[in-house]
Design brief:
Two copies of one chain form a homodimer. Chain A is an all-alpha fold. Chain A has a single domain, classed as Globin-like, CATH 1.10.490.10. Chain A has eight helices and no strands. The first copy, chain A, is globular and about 45 Å long. The relative contact order of chain A is 0.18. At the A-B interface, helix 1, helix 7 and helix 8 of A face helix 1, helix 7 and helix 8 of B.
Amino acid sequence: MQQVKESIPGYTFGAKEVPTSPVSLQALAQLKISVGFTQDDVRYLALAGDVLADQTKVIVAHWRSGIIASIPHLARHSRDPDAQALPEYLARSNRRFEQWILDTCRRPYDQDWLNYQQEIALRHTSVKKNQTDQVKSTLYIPLRDIIAFVTVMNDTIKPYLGAKGHTADDVEKMHKAWRNSMQLQIALFAKPYSDSKLALDEW
Amino acid sequence: MQQVKESIPGYTFGAKEVPTSPVSLQALAQLKISVGFTQDDVRYLALAGDVLADQTKVIVAHWRSGIIASIPHLARHSRDPDAQALPEYLARSNRRFEQWILDTCRRPYDQDWLNYQQEIALRHTSVKKNQTDQVKSTLYIPLRDIIAFVTVMNDTIKPYLGAKGHTADDVEKMHKAWRNSMQLQIALFAKPYSDSKLALDEW
């Protein structure tokens, strides 16, 4: 299975420069148990990958232009300090966002995946945000914004999962697998935030 | 509407000793927007409250005895350091857990609710865990365990929402409202964890 069709700016999955995650594979195994993430979910995520493969651009556009763009406290994270658009930043990070959908569905959740989860998490904190694309924007994305937006992604993904004529039961199982993966990933994304004041928070 | 039927040990909702949350009502309003939490969700949560009111004991028993008890890395948080059961601790915290279901459905998400969310969050961290019930148990519950367990609660609550003969559409809307509230609450629970090293984490 071809994982990545073309070169994506700043996409370093599996690359040597991505440090080993502080989360162990054993901790990940425990987390899967806590979430109730099963082999069934792995199978239905693979099916979701086939269903979503040619829809990722539309889905990310829906999330980014259709939802985030209209919520100023979320939109600012991909804008400059004067709230002006940064089209190139958006374009580059959208490409990675699209690939993340496929990685969620198709990648084995192994050491490389775990490492890149930590890398993605750090790119939302003050440690690494803006660096990959050399932009000036908000210093970090508060963890609450990430946690909250998952609900939006969960609610909006379902019609796309149903767009290729699968049975309602299959769509439901793909959706459950997706939601389970999202919760697993939030727990991983929360790691650097709960380690220390990487994202000074002025709620 | 009567909010609490009887005295619940350690349940201090609205009490003077609960400090004001560091999260403002304005930040909560933003968070609702990020989650997509609407007035419809408020209405369907109220309906869910009616549906769940006489089922909270069964639901919490399902979560605690049916699921958590069989997962050692979760069960330890309500056991003593030798992994022995603490029946009184469990009984007291189960009562609060049951009331939390009703509060989720029936309370207005106002200043008192916000304050108590922060109190609940702190009671999962090393700042306040075990204090309310004067027990010896794990020093804190890792944020990842809370985030992960929400998926289990979301998946298992649905049959209980459907147990009183509501239409599939109403059950779906109650379930969506429940999930939205859970994500809102996780974002709030994450607050003290992401403030500082309140829960030293050795993943």
